[in-house]
Design goal:
342 residues, alpha+beta, seven-stranded antiparallel beta sheet, 22% helix
């Protein structure tokens, strides 16, 4: 008769979960095993470069393989052209049609990070809708043109180059700028990056131009330095002492180290933080108008940044030092030319 009490006790333990009564032990909850995502096909793209203009913003997207990693760099900058905003006043994305503030220096901004295979596969699928696929690739040499739309290189060495495609092209119809913009915005968001308000990224120094002209002597001196490749640069110079003297010229290939040194000088003086130069109304009579201009970016990209240091600008002491050092580098290289005119 006493067993019914023990049975009630076991029933009580099972209902209210008292440990040690039923012999059952609590086990920690185990998370279900996460299976690898096999919902996509890995891309055969080795490297892709895309640049376009949309809603008063210039965009640049570079994705390339580096060993086992996939590196992604995205940059944006407000366009130099500032059309009025649409009648609706809202574009559905960052308000790129806002007019820049007075005396505001606009810098290219963006982010650089690593992505997974799916991100590259998603880009590949997007491009394939516009006919950019491995079957259409070629091994023919590619001429690098200004402001091209995209360049895609595959693992087998073949590539596709698409220059400025018109609105009626098959690519523009299937992959409009809105889709490319949405892809970049989503990719940045998924990876915790800022696309429009990210890090200032000037890019690579592409060109440096020196100009001295306008004096009463009628002479002039122009120097153009432009990057041709990672290792070479083109140095061009035209010099004329006075209006009736013959013009002496130079046109030669030099090591690109000079442009790398100029880039390093810009980082040393932190030109990516400079505000617009103050302007002065002072005019030097009977003096040449002298200026130095620099251009940063990629040869094929819409995202470029230019800085001009002209005769009507007032410089701080560090800015004056930077100007003189750039000037000295150009003049020292100019003196190495075959035609000695100093």
């Amino acid at each position: 008769m006493r067993f019914w009490k023990f049975g009630l006790f076991l029933l009580f333990c099972s209902l209210f979960g008292l440990q040690g009564c039923t012999g059952a032990e609590d086990k920690p909850a185990q998370k279900p095993e996460q299976k690898p995502d096999i919902s996509f096909t890995p891309s055969e793209i080795q490297k892709s470069e895309i640049s376009f203009l949309h809603n008063n913003y210039c965009y640049e997207l570079i994705m390339e393989r580096d060993g086992d990693k996939i590196l992604c760099t995205m940059r944006t900058i407000k366009s130099r052209f500032n059309p009025p905003p649409p009648s609706s006043g809202f574009t559905g994305m960052k308000p790129g049609t806002e007019a820049p503030k007075k005396n505001e220096r606009i810098f290219p901004r963006g982010c650089s990070f690593t992505v997974n295979e799916k991100a590259l596969a998603d880009l590949d699928q997007l491009l394939q809708k516009g006919g950019i696929n491995i079957a259409a690739a070629t091994t023919d040499p590619v001429e690098v043109k200004q402001l091209r739309l995209l360049y895609v290189e595959y693992k087998n060495g073949k590539h596709i180059t698409l220059n400025r495609a018109g609105k009626d092209s098959s690519f523009r119809k299937e992959v409009p700028d809105e889709k490319l913009t949405a892809f970049m915005e989503q990719l940045a968001k998924d990876n915790g990056q800022k696309l429009y308000d990210g890090t200032v990224m000037l890019g690579q120094l592409l060109q440096c131009h020196y100009s001295s002209a306008g004096s009463s002597s009628g002479g002039h001196h122009f120097i153009d330095l432009s990057r041709k490749s990672k290792t070479e640069a083109l140095f061009e110079s035209r010099f004329k002492a006075w209006y009736n003297s013959p013009e002496k010229t130079q046109n030669r290939i030099i090591p690109a180290q000079m442009m790398d040194d100029m880039e390093a000088l810009g980082r040393e003086y932190k030109i990516d933080t400079w505000e617009p130069f103050r302007e002065t109304d002072l005019i030097a009579l009977d003096a040449a108008s002298v200026s130095i201009s620099l251009s940063y970016g990629k040869p094929w990209s819409w995202v470029k940044w230019d800085m001009r240091m002209g005769p009507h600008h007032e410089f701080t002491r560090p800015q004056s030092e930077y100007y003189r050092k750039i000037y000295k580098q150009l003049l020292d290289e100019d003196k190495k030319g075959i035609d000695k005119y100093y």
